[in-house]
Amino acid sequence: MNEFQNVHVLPKTAYLSYLHTKIREKSASQQTFNTYSNQVIRQLLIHAAELLQFNDKGVITPIGDIYQGYDLKTGVCGVSVIRAGESMEPEYNNMFPGSPVGKILIQRDKVSKLPSYYYSHFPADIDKRSVFLFEPMLATGGSLIKAIETLLENNVSEQQIIVVNFLASPEGLDHVVTQFPNLKIVTSSIEEGMNEHAYMKPGIGDFGDRYFGTYSK
Ligand code: URA
């Protein structure tokens, strides 16, 4: 349990902590970082999938019996907040083969630190789908709020959106859920807070740079 309604935190199992330990270590190579973060991403996506709606569906098994199971009620659409969000696309493609992926580009101004919208592209029927919004780092919440506003402008309702998030700060979560109380968020950790550069503590560093190997000096 946590203090935020509609925020689902993965159970802190020993194996999840082991994955976090591998990923958070400063000296982890890009390969180590990606191998272990992909496993956390898989857990996040499985948890997010459990929040979808399903219809009953029976199938005939090879021995002629009926298996009573489920089918998805609506299609899904992944939406990546460029660039870190794109790290979630390979596991999403494995789980939902053939499902569309939209993109949103939001960048923080280097001086004002405020997020600005640059670009988005979605499938025409996104308003009829459940949307997984891929935003691994929720620090101040500013970029995520802009991304959600962009989806709402494209007729996606708050209830249709499940944010798939790796790490979140309590301040950022508060900011986002106050503005969008019906949004669902799945995360693998709520951090202690942020430092003066808006990096989460203890955190993971710059997720995009570590995942894509674009370290600056
Ligand atoms: N973005 C990151 O990549 N890491 C943080 O800690 C905060 C924002």
UniProtKB/TrEMBL annotation:
Gene Ontology molecular functions: uracil phosphoribosyltransferase activity
Domain Phosphoribosyltransferase: 12-214
Keyword Cell inner membrane included in the entry's annotation: no
Alphabetic keyword roster: Glycosyltransferase, Transferase
E.C. code: 2.4.2.9
Gene3D superfamilies in UniProt: 3.40.50.2020
Record NCBIfam families: PRK00129.1
Protein name stated in the entry: Uracil phosphoribosyltransferase
Naturally occurring in which organism (per UniProt): Vibrio spartinae
